[in-house]
Amino acid sequence: MGLRVPPDKFEWQMKYLRKNGYETVSLEDVMDHFEKGKHLPDKPIVITFDDGYKDNYRFAYPIMKKYGYTGTIFVVSKAIGNTNFFDVEKKLQPENRIMDWHEIRELAEAGFTIGAHTVDHPHLAEVPPEVARHQIEESKRALEHGLKKPVEFFAYPYGSYNDTVADLVKQAGYRAAVTTELGLAKADSNPFKLRRIRVTGHYSNEKFIEELHKY
């Protein structure tokens, strides 16, 4: 189960957020707020999904739409229209479908941010810098070509990064990147080392609320 949240539980979470005044914003909104003082709502949240699974489109998207929410989906470019071969090969996850271009474009048109998550999901801190550079640059190029719009945000696969990798993301022309380190993104955060709050499929409703308020 890990990071996958069942649709009924996800619906409860979105309903809770809506009922309690949380508004979704994009990472672009967050960076504009940090850098240019753009106004954000009182309780802003960015909802992110990694890898680009088809269930993001089938289940999360209609639920979020119902509550007026959008999110950010970090896509593994080589997996588009395919499966999560990168996790299956390592026996980390069962095989699951990844969204195709039609679904990704529909989400982008509905206000979702599509971010890059490398070409084939390696541990970037463990590969040679030139391999990391290719993964970071090529995924951006492929997504921009498919979406016909800039791709400005990046997520490190497995949360694996170091200062060299973060610099490569910056050099590739991204505006910011998210990690798997726990916490809130703040104005003084390094934009290429932004923290997130993890939500797993094991969380009870009480645990979800606790994690939301913990930081």
Task: Write a brief caption for the model.
The chain is of the alpha/beta class and about 220 residues long.
Question: How is the secondary structure organized here?
Answer:
Layout: H1 7-19, E1 23-24, H2 27-36, E2 44-45, E3 48-51, H3 54-66, E4 72-75, H4 85-88, H5 101-109, E5 113-116, H6 129-147, E6 153-155, H7 163-171, E7 176-182, E8 194-196, H8 205-214
Helix pairs in contact: 1-3, 6-7
- How many DSSP-defined strands? 8
Structural class: alpha/beta
Largest sheet: 3 strands, parallel
In spatial order, strands of the major sheet run 3-4-5
Q: What does this molecule look like?
A:
- The protein is an alpha/beta fold.
- The protein is 40% helix and 13% strand.
- The protein has 8 helices and 8 strands, in the order αβαββαβααβαβαββα.
- It has helices spanning 7-19, 27-36, 54-66, 85-88, 101-109, 129-147, 163-171, 205-214; strands at 23-24, 44-45, 48-51, 72-75, 113-116, 153-155, 176-182, 194-196.
- The strands form 3 sheets. A 3-stranded parallel sheet has the order 3-4-5. A 3-stranded parallel sheet has the order 6-7-8, sandwiched between helices.
- The longest helix is centred in the middle third of the chain and has 19 residues, at 129-147.
- It is globular, with a radius of gyration of 16 Å.
